[in-house]
Fold:
Amino acid sequence: MGTLMLAGVLTLGVTSTAFAKDFGTDLNGASSNEYLEIRYEGAAWNYEGSGYKNASFKYTRNGKTLLAKTATSGKVTGGVWDDLRWGDKYTTYFSWNHQK
Structure:
Protein backbone atom coordinates (compact mmCIF):
# COMPACT_ATOMS: atom_id res chain seq x y z
CA MET A 1 0.00 0.00 0.00
CA GLY A 2 2.81 2.44 0.90
CA THR A 3 4.55 1.91 -2.44
CA LEU A 4 1.35 2.45 -4.37
CA MET A 5 0.57 5.58 -2.39
CA LEU A 6 4.04 6.98 -3.05
CA ALA A 7 3.80 6.14 -6.76
CA GLY A 8 0.43 7.87 -6.89
CA VAL A 9 1.79 10.99 -5.25
CA LEU A 10 4.76 11.10 -7.62
CA THR A 11 2.58 10.47 -10.66
CA LEU A 12 0.24 13.28 -9.78
CA GLY A 13 3.17 15.68 -9.55
CA VAL A 14 2.56 16.47 -5.91
CA THR A 15 5.90 16.92 -4.21
CA SER A 16 6.95 18.06 -0.80
CA THR A 17 10.37 19.64 -0.46
CA ALA A 18 12.00 18.35 2.72
CA PHE A 19 15.28 20.24 2.22
CA ALA A 20 16.49 22.86 -0.24
CA LYS A 21 19.78 24.72 -0.33
CA ASP A 22 21.37 27.13 -2.81
CA PHE A 23 25.09 27.89 -2.99
CA GLY A 24 26.98 30.61 -4.83
CA THR A 25 25.35 33.46 -6.76
CA ASP A 26 22.81 33.97 -9.53
CA LEU A 27 25.65 33.77 -12.09
CA ASN A 28 27.59 30.79 -10.68
CA GLY A 29 26.44 28.25 -8.14
CA ALA A 30 24.64 25.04 -7.34
CA SER A 31 21.57 23.81 -5.50
CA SER A 32 20.16 20.64 -4.01
CA ASN A 33 16.52 19.86 -3.26
CA GLU A 34 15.27 16.81 -1.38
CA TYR A 35 11.76 15.59 -2.19
CA LEU A 36 9.71 13.29 0.02
CA GLU A 37 12.96 12.37 1.79
CA ILE A 38 13.81 9.87 -0.99
CA ARG A 39 14.78 11.88 -4.09
CA TYR A 40 17.52 14.47 -4.51
CA GLU A 41 17.54 16.89 -7.45
CA GLY A 42 20.68 18.94 -8.04
CA ALA A 43 21.67 21.77 -10.35
CA ALA A 44 24.78 23.72 -11.24
CA TRP A 45 24.94 26.88 -13.31
CA ASN A 46 27.58 29.11 -14.82
CA TYR A 47 26.51 32.17 -16.78
CA GLU A 48 28.45 34.80 -18.68
CA GLY A 49 30.02 37.37 -16.40
CA SER A 50 30.38 35.03 -13.43
CA GLY A 51 34.19 35.12 -13.53
CA TYR A 52 34.34 31.32 -13.29
CA LYS A 53 35.12 28.62 -15.87
CA ASN A 54 32.48 26.27 -14.52
CA ALA A 55 30.31 25.11 -11.64
CA SER A 56 29.71 21.50 -10.70
CA PHE A 57 27.80 19.35 -8.24
CA LYS A 58 28.17 15.79 -7.06
CA TYR A 59 26.14 13.27 -5.06
CA THR A 60 28.08 10.56 -3.25
CA ARG A 61 27.29 7.65 -0.97
CA ASN A 62 29.73 5.39 0.87
CA GLY A 63 32.69 6.94 -0.98
CA LYS A 64 31.20 6.30 -4.42
CA THR A 65 30.02 8.96 -6.87
CA LEU A 66 26.35 8.51 -7.74
CA LEU A 67 26.11 11.51 -10.07
CA ALA A 68 28.42 14.35 -11.09
CA LYS A 69 27.57 17.20 -13.48
CA THR A 70 29.48 20.29 -14.63
CA ALA A 71 28.11 23.46 -16.21
CA THR A 72 30.56 25.46 -18.32
CA SER A 73 27.86 27.64 -19.88
CA GLY A 74 24.26 27.60 -18.75
CA LYS A 75 22.71 25.12 -16.33
CA VAL A 76 22.86 21.35 -15.78
CA THR A 77 20.53 19.26 -13.61
CA GLY A 78 20.22 15.70 -12.41
CA GLY A 79 18.89 13.58 -9.61
CA VAL A 80 19.46 10.46 -7.53
CA TRP A 81 17.32 8.23 -5.33
CA ASP A 82 18.16 8.03 -1.63
CA ASP A 83 18.98 4.78 0.15
CA LEU A 84 16.40 4.38 2.89
CA ARG A 85 18.58 2.21 5.13
CA TRP A 86 20.18 3.75 8.24
CA GLY A 87 23.88 4.30 8.81
CA ASP A 88 26.77 6.38 7.53
CA LYS A 89 27.40 4.18 4.49
CA TYR A 90 23.81 4.79 3.32
CA THR A 91 23.87 8.57 3.71
CA THR A 92 23.70 10.58 0.48
CA TYR A 93 26.00 13.63 0.36
CA PHE A 94 25.90 16.68 -1.89
CA SER A 95 28.91 18.83 -2.73
CA TRP A 96 29.61 21.60 -5.19
CA ASN A 97 32.64 23.37 -6.62
CA HIS A 98 33.56 26.08 -9.08
CA GLN A 99 36.78 26.82 -10.93
CA LYS A 100 38.28 30.27 -11.52
Summary: The chain has a mean pLDDT of 86. The CA atoms of residues 8 and 14 lie 9 Å apart.
